[in-house]
Write a structure and sequence with these properties.
The chain is α+β, with helices and mostly antiparallel strands and about 160 residues long. The chain contains four helices and six strands, in the order ααβββαβββα.
Length: about 160
Amino acid sequence: MDKAETYRQLKEEIDCVVSGETSETARYATAACLLAQAFTPRFFWTGFYLVDPLKPQELVVGPYQGTLGCLRIPFGKGVCGHVAATREPIIVPDVHEFPGHIACDAASNSEIVVPVFRADGSLAAVLDVDSTSYDAFDEVDQAGLVAICESLLIG
């Protein structure tokens, strides 16, 4: 099965599992788990950083699969903070070349981050996926992850 088909099937599975679930945490935990399982070992770290309602210019670690993640990331700092500030997905082939990269785990060499929105258009979180390989992500990954993040919308 090719990668695009894997994403299509994962989206379908996530849609079924989270249907009717009102908890963002449960929805994100499900997506992180299924994505990590489907793409291990390429996906070294898979998880969500949530917009902190008490500090709306900071991301706080949410459900994830992998090694210890950073606890907080300010908007505009590192890859996740960049996506939180721009609200646009990004593929980073070599994180060591990214200005202001935050090394939560030195084993990470490439990264893809996708914004997650609520139904009202506000930013809820970012989905962060890291790989120990360089240049591990492409447009197929981005399209698949964006589609899955759209499945996570609530109200």
